[in-house]
Write a structure and sequence with these properties.
The protein is α/β, with parallel strands linked by helices. The protein has 2 domains: 169 residues, no CATH class; 206 residues, 3-Layer(aba) Sandwich (D-Maltodextrin-Binding Protein, domain 2), CATH 3.40.190.10. The chain is built from 10 helices and 27 strands. β22 and β23 form a beta hairpin.
């Protein structure tokens, strides 16, 4: 279209010819071609990459704003507009010869997380999206949005979302079969019947972490140095792998189910004397150990996610074994018990919740949550210097700029290497799912996206940009169940797990990983 047309956006020659509306988890966002830290780590479908200046490319990134163009974010809505063709999407028809060159609009909705996306794809619930570059009322603006220790660039700011749009597919942090039972389903909604989703692809393993406030990390670190669990050479604040403290899976189950609600429950033997964790820290404060402070209270504070949030579903299925064990699974704690259980209903909200408990700030305190989840406490409620724990993707805070740190589980770091070795347990197999009611071109695009997203090279590329922590490489791991051969010993350039949850041919979030018999080797370490 000519300059001045309603479609005077790049590519500036008309409306999208192929549109994908994909709600759900952020877990596969890098594979769509979004920019991270001024680079494009992966790009499944577009002919060329976007860039921060928006020049010299026909691919551009669109973020939603509720105010100024400079205030756009990808927290709720984002999109990519680009050219694609049959070299990217085998089987694509129409478009311009010789390779069926086609204008592609990929519209992502993160609002509502994994369950909301799966409900839209499985049950036909219509949602709001950035419909297209014209209807979304977009203005050229190159910006950068900092979030979770990384930055996300965009080229157009869009003010308008459109309701009543059907999902083409959905992304989720865990395969759809886990989204059943009260803890894994948005209140008022029904369980996801995974069998209604004709296409369910487990793309890779999403390594989820248990972040604790910085002052709690320091407390655990000091206590475990004192009792010999961590090397005597470690000091409080050390960020190296050997000095990361650990909690057992059983302690985590007890915390998230509300059975362990006071940090004084944790006992530490120091020089033959048994003391509580707060008492050990108090001794360190008296001794002038840098990095320690006595907490405002000894209550366990939990920044949990909303029901149906994928990373929490990963915690439930892997650690609490819910819904896997039925009534035998411990239930996730709700507000109102002895522990201070609070809802943080997004990745950023978890960051801010932990930050407020650590620092006494008001980034999350005094805000509101979407109904029906209770709001955070008011800003006037005393807070700060409190010990809190949460659930978070290990893609965040690799820079250590936020006031929390990830810890080990049963002595294993949340790294690809420890998942490869079978040591780290909290891994969700993130997925792309859709029904057969899409068009042939949409189906071809989704299949191409699924195949590309699961490649070990794709996963290795995205890991290096987002999740390279001081204690090791976290993020994601490729699946041998997708036909990728695992290395005989760990290789971060070929991050493929030798374990599988798909012995019966379909992904099963409740299955205990076993050695994939198609390859039959694991590293003994």
């Amino acid at each position: 279209a000519a300059t001045g047309s309603a479609w005077a956006l790049t590519p500036a020659d008309g409306a999208p010819q192929l549109s994908l509306y994909i709600p759900g988890s952020q877990s596969n966002d890098p594979a769509f071609g979004f920019m991270i830290n001024n680079t494009t780590p992966a790009n499944a479908l577009c002919l060329n990459d976007p860039n921060p200046t928006g020049t010299g490319t026909t691919t551009h990134v669109y973020f939603h704003t509720k105010g100024a163009n400079s205030a756009a974010t990808n927290d709720e809505y984002s999109a990519i507009y680009c050219y694609t063709d049959s070299t990217k999407i085998p089987g694509l028809t129409g478009g311009v010869a010789p390779n069926n060159k086609t204008r592609l609009w990929i519209s992502r909705r993160r609002l509502g997380a994994s369950f909301v996306g799966l409900d839209a794809a499985a049950n036909g619930t219509k949602l709001t999206y950035l419909k297209d570059p014209a209807t979304a009322v977009c203005t050229a603006f190159n910006g950068s949005y900092p979030s979770g220790g990384a930055s996300y660039q965009w080229n157009y700011s869009c003010t308008t979302v459109t309701s009543g749009i059907s999902a083409t597919a959905a992304t989720s942090d865990v395969t759809p079969d886990a989204f059943r039972g009260v803890d894994n389903v948005t209140p008022g909604k029904t369980d996801i019947d995974a069998s209604t989703l004709d296409n369910r692809f487990a793309l890779g393993g999403h390594i989820i972490g248990t972040p604790v406030t910085l002052k709690l990390r320091n407390a655990l670190q000091y206590a475990q140095i004192q009792n010999g669990t961590l090397p005597a050479s470690c000091t409080v604040g050390n960020e190296t792998p050997a000095c990361v403290p650990s909690l057992s899976k059983e302690i985590l189950v007890s915390i998230f189910s509300g059975q362990l609600y006071d940090w004084s429950t944790l006992k530490v033997k120091v020089a033959g004397a048994e003391k509580s964790l707060p008492e050990v820290v108090a001794d360190g404060v008296t001794a002038g150990v840098a990095g320690l402070s006595n907490p405002l209270d000894t209550a366990v504070h939990v920044c949990r996610r909303e029901n149906g949030a994928g990373q929490q579903v990963a915690l439930l299925s892997n650690i609490l074994k819910s819904p896997c064990l039925g009534d035998s699974s411990p239930k996730l704690a709700e507000p109102g018990g002895f522990a201070d259980i609070q809802y943080a209903t997004s990745l950023g909200a978890v960051d801010r919740c932990l930050g407020d408990y650590n620092n006494g700030t008001n980034g999350w305190f005094g805000t509101s949550n979407p109904a029906p989840f209770p709001n955070p406490p008011a800003t006037g409620v005393p807070h700060g210097n409190q010990w809190a724990i949460g659930i978070q993707t290990t893609e965040r805070n690799a820079s250590n700029s936020a006031s929390y740190r990830f810890i080990k589980i049963d002595g294993a770091l949340p790294t690809g290497e420890q998942v490869f070795l079978g040591h780290y347990p909290l891994v969700g197999e993130y997925a792309l799912s859709w029904k057969n009611n899409v068009t042939a071109n949409q189906d071809a695009a989704l299949n191409a996206l699924a195949i590309y997203s699961g490649l070990p090279s794709t996963i290795a590329a995205r890991n290096s940009d987002l999740s390279n922590h001081s204690w090791g490489q976290a993020g994601y791991i490729a699946l041998s169940a997708n036909g990728h051969m695992p290395p005989a010993t760990w290789d971060p350039a070929n991050p493929v797990t030798p374990y599988t949850r798909s012995l019966l041919g379909t992904p099963d979030a409740c299955a205990i990983p076993v050695v994939n018999p198609d390859f039959g080797s694991v590293e003994l370490r």
